[in-house]
Recover the amino acids of this structure.
């Protein structure tokens, strides 16, 4: 429906796994990943791993092939298509990266359902290696979100604030937001939703646990979803 903006997290929300872990495991880099994990921020680590895999002869096509077989719940696909066909404005807000997300959405024919992908930028360099950069340049301009659940490269609450400002500026009308996510990084934006908005946390996942610790902190109505019973494709269109 026009006037409703639906914001989707990507990892463990649109797809059923974490795309970074899926690619790392699928290309046999799990051991290296575990070794490097304590030494650098997550976002920097994935960029570094892409360099290591490239040096080992893995191509961008290998990365894409692994992403195309990442599991995706048909109920989630149905929910996305239904919300889009009802006229909602769908956006991705993810701490993965543009290449991973576009590869998956293209493969499932879903990219056209989304008006915007907010994530860590990526590009392919002259050698054919995938480079991944942080969404916020945290060395030059830290995002200064004091919540503690936002990684240094992305405060989703601040990005959500920017999205709301930009969609409101388009026609001046206030929009209802619906936010779907699973991770601790989805907690900050849930606190920024307004009374007329809906927060849809994935039940049993970190953002659900954080919300349950102190439900009074959220202004938005909370409607959990789970993958097991196809709740999402019935609930989401109902709210729009
Ligand atoms: Mg997630
Ligand atoms: Zn934040």
């Amino acid at each position: 429906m026009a006037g409703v903006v639906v914001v989707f997290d990507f990892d463990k929300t649109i797809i059923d796994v974490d795309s970074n872990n899926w690619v790392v495991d699928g290309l046999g880099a799990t051991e290296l990943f575990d070794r490097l994990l304590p030494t650098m921020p997550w976002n920097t680590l994935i960029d570094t791993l892409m360099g290591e895999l490239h040096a080992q002869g893995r191509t961008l096509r290998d990365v894409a092939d692994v992403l195309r077989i990442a599991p995706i719940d048909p109920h989630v696909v149905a929910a996305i298509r239904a919300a889009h066909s009802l006229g909602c404005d769908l956006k991705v807000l993810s701490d993965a990266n543009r290449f991973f997300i576009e590869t998956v959405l293209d493969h499932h024919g879903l990219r056209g359902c989304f008006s915007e992908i907010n994530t860590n930028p990526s590009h392919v360099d002259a050698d054919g290696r995938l480079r991944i950069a942080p969404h916020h340049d945290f060395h030059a301009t830290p995002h200064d979100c004091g919540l503690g659940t936002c990684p240094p490269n992305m405060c989703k609450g601040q990005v959500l604030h920017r999205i709301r400002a930009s969609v409101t500026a388009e026609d001046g009308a206030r929009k209802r937001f619906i936010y779907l996510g699973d991770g601790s990084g989805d907690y900050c934006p849930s606190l920024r939703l307004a009374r007329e908005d809906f927060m849809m946390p994935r039940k049993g996942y970190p953002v659900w646990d954080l919300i349950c610790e102190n439900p009074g902190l959220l202004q938005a109505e909370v409607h959990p979803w789970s993958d097991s019973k196809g709740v999402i494709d019935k609930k989401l269109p109902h709210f729009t």
